[in-house]
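Troubleshooting: if your tokenizer reports a length mismatch, compare your output against this known-good record of 343 residues.
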Amino acid sequence: MPNNESPPATAAPVASTPVAITLIEAITQALAWEMQDDDSVVVLGEDVGVNGGVFRATAGLSATFGTQRVLDTPLDETTIAGLTVGMASQGMKPVAEAQFDGFMYPMVDFIVCHAARMRYRTRGRLSCPMVLRVPWGGGIRAPEHHSEANESIFTNVPGLRVVMPSSPQRAYGLLLAAIRDPDPVIFFEPKRIYRQYKEVVADDGEALPLDVCYVLRDGSDLTLVTWGAQVKETLEAAEKLASEGISAEVIDVATLRPLDFATIAESVSKTGRCVIVHEAPKTAGFGAEIAARLAEESIYDLRAPVERVTGYDTHIPLFRLEMKYLPSVERIVAAARRAVAAG
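Known-good structure output:
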């Protein structure tokens, strides 16, 4: 523990009756389960203790586990990142929060130069079992630096896992897996869907596998690949396409790095067409990596050019045009129609 004061006693976690909860509640449940199960897990960040975090993801944890394990830090992202790497390298399992995606940039030095290289630098003598939770993306009418979609910056860094859930069930299971992973994980949480809908989640401590894509809908005419908040619009687009006689398979990437390309390739070998949907700007967005892999490894399966439906190559506009910036059902459907018409 960080000092000599004893933490409050906690009972072993017990599975509760599954209930319908939001994505943000699933995050809280996963944190509470893992903190009960493993006293090396600590939570730290700006306002995560007394206030329960800016989005209340850590509400109630300080009262349950004490101020030694739920640490309110200064308003200093560089310090948060440094503390997190130091704790992780010395046997703890810190889960840090960056209040917003645009606040990550002061953390990059510690994430890229230290957390991601710890195992490589020490030839396996040390690892860095840390999680950085990041409220991610637009759609909540927040000001500048509060609506970034910057995942592709971190998918380019060897030694990092980059994970983004798209539902309460996947948020719960993937966060448990991320905390248990021996290496650093960037855990992007799409804040637009924090409280958008509820889903039954069993609070049973069962993790979901990392490094795999999830096929959410079977189809035969084209493959829709997406992640994060855009899963909702993509599934809605698939429903609309079905009413037009177009069968769309929907894949939630979930773990961006390392990418489970095999699942995407298998789908495209069946459908012959692919539309990639993401919120980040188009140029050098992670969709470009998927498109490049398809060109390299699945070119003979493609019957039409790969389409991308993305944000635009600008900062997300405030506030009136924000939803126009984000991929819409209409834009996804239009791209799918083009792909089907092309071959």
